[in-house]
Amino acid sequence: MTVQLENPIIVQSDRTILLEVARPRAREARDVLAAFAELEKSPEHIHSYRLTPLSLWNAAAAGLTAQTILRQLTDLSKYDIPPMVVTTINDAMNRYGRVKLLRDGDNMVLRSADSPLIVELRRNKKLEPYILGAMGDDTIIIDPARRGLVKQALIGVGYPAEDLAGYSDGTALALAMRDQAVDGRGFALRQYQSDAVSAFYANGAVAGGSGVVVLPCGAGKTIVGIGTMAAVGRATLILTPNTVAVRQWISEILDKTTLTPEQVGEYTGERKDIRPVTVTTYQMLTYRPSESSDFPHFSLMTAHDWGLIVYDEVHLLPAPIFRVTAEIQARRRLGLTATLVREDGRESDVFSLIGPKKFDVPWRELEKQGWIATAECHEVRLSLNDADRMAYALTEDREKYRAAAENARKIEIVRALIERHATDQILIIGQYLDQLKQLAQLLEAPLLTGKTPNAQRQKLYDDFRHGTIKRLVVSKVANFAIDLPDANVAIQVSGTFGSRQEEAQRLGRLLRPKSDGSIAYFYTVVTRDTRDQDFAANRQLFLTEQGYKYIIEDAEAVGLIAQDAAAPH
User: Fold this and answer.
1) Which end of the chain has the smaller Cβ count within 10 Å, N or C?
2) Which residue intervals of 158-281 are DSSP H helices?
3) Count of structural domains within the chain
4) Are residues 144 and 90 part of one domain?
5) Which residue has the higher pLDDT, 443 or 342?
6) Residue 428 in contact with residue 400, Cβ under 8 Å?
7) Domain range for residue 501?
8) What angle do CA 488, 494, 499 make, to 5 degrees?
9) pTM, whole model, 2 decimals?
10) Given 3-state DSSP classes, what are the helix, strand and coil percentages for the chain, each rounded to the nearest 5?
11) What is the DSSP track for 65-110?
12) Domain of residue 493, CATH code
């Protein structure tokens, strides 16, 4: 057995990988593991990763080989790689693309050089409804209208198809990227943005045209989308989380491309303009008058000759959109996100229906290059007072998180943090409206929620950008597609349970580079020894994945709250 004790990882036969964070090459190892393994736990000293079929298939789709992964693991591991893990990696990587989805004349087919596998798939109950016949020993003819369902079924049986069946062109649209923005400033794609466009589009080859680009908030995912539109040169439908995002997309498109306002349409509750480039929301498409009704706006995705559909914040894709996406596999599909993690566990549907990961880059790498702000992450822990501890103990399990998250003593922490950052632009972010209303009143700060009209919402954002207001209390509407480049402090008082995707969005609000080069501060205020602390540990996984140091502060010990008010612990 080869032993290299200074190396940072241990690969175990159950497909888990342990990373010792204090070792000299730990950061290098973290960046390597992020490409093909999923982070499961990240306590102080040893982080746990797991190799899964989906993580390895995404790696294969992004161009990694089993040989490369095994070489990297061998180079970083203390001990020899268990033979079982070697077999697992080789098998999983070999399964991706062993079956190819192709066009053969007028037919759409599944083809493999592995004839016994084709025989096995022909007999598979999940695929059987979509099979129209066979062509020789190596080819199955499938129903082209069921292309997406075939790909989902193949994921289910463990043989994800490489989709090389190509795409309908869509209506031609002449557009180009500007050399200068409308205000006269020079403009060009950054190198990593250009690389992301190239990885997705693949010069128009059938190997390109569907997949996901993973970039941090603030790194210009919108610009990648616009660059892809210019590369494709076809009518484009863009799906976003909310109306504010719709208008930000439209503003950027008109600022950075040669398209005119007459060519770009907003399709929301307020306007319904269908143009060569149309921007809408997930909520709009999933609206229906009643649970038994059809979705009246789904036809926007299916009835128009789009050459590209862009899914902004693809990790938020609602289930009904998956259904209609399964029906439009002949259109190019670009997913944009800061994290592939979905709280509903439907990452495999993103893989099969939108496409595999085509490009990503570590957040800290972009930070080192100056493209996103340096961030410092803190978890501030405090106790419940005696009366609230007893009330918490008597609370039903399903209500315990809210009871802990709304700990009234958090207000004192928020006040102290605001004093610590008296001259900064501060977002106070939370989940529960009663808590946020109280904070807004006590801090004499504006409150922005999902019920805030779009016009008022836009005015508050503008006032915050211009420094007219220094503090803004926001609900989870601030998670998505808000451009607040001068926000440099966020204080999170409550969240959507243990959501890693939400953590990505909230941290992302701070990562636009600061004009003065200052760093950003991200605080999470957590009630100690409760479900609030348990869920914070899960959210922390995202920060660890990106290489951020996570500083845990005891509110009483560092003087953020009075010692004599603290409950014993």
Assistant:
1) N
2) 191-201, 221-232, 243-256
3) 4
4) no
5) 443
6) no
7) 372-565
8) 90
9) 0.81
10) 40, 20, 40
11) -HHHHHHHHHHHBSSPPPHHHHHHHHHHHHHTTTSEEEEETTEEEE
12) 3.40.50.300
